[in-house]
From TrEMBL:
GO biological process: DNA integration
SUPFAM superfamilies with a match to the protein in the record: Ribonuclease H-like
Domain Integrase catalytic: 1-85
Name used for this protein in its record: DDE-type integrase/transposase/recombinase
GO molecular function: nucleic acid binding
Record-linked InterPro entries: Integrase_cat-core (IPR001584), RNaseH-like_sf (IPR012337), RNaseH_sf (IPR036397), Transposase_IS3/IS150/IS904 (IPR050900)
Provenance organism: Dyadobacter luticola
Coiled-coil residue spans: none
């Protein structure tokens, strides 16, 4: 949509799009957005964009550093990457 692309360009945002036929390209981020919506966004009514932005930043820190994942052997993403970087 041209109007949307113009708004992005005006704000200095580069649009990211999957290649044709590659719907799995965005699977990881789509999963994250689903998780953040169910664990953060839908649980509270926010009074301002600033409040929501602060909560999102806090959640991203929690998600990366403290939230354990069973598919990462019970580690957070940061712990998992650190273990496999030093191996």
């Amino acid at each position: 949509m041209k109007a949307y692309q113009r708004i992005l360009a005006d704000k200095g945002i580069t649009q990211s799009m999957s290649r044709k036929g590659k719907c799995l390209d965005n699977a990881v981020i789509e999963n994250f957005f689903g998780t953040i919506k169910s664990e953060l966004f839908y649980l509270k009514a926010y009074n301002s964009v600033q409040e929501l932005e602060t909560e999102i930043k806090s959640y991203i820190n929690y998600y990366n550093n403290d939230r354990i994942r069973l598919n990462l052997n019970g580690m957070s993403p940061v712990q998992y990457r650190a273990q496999h970087t030093n191996s």
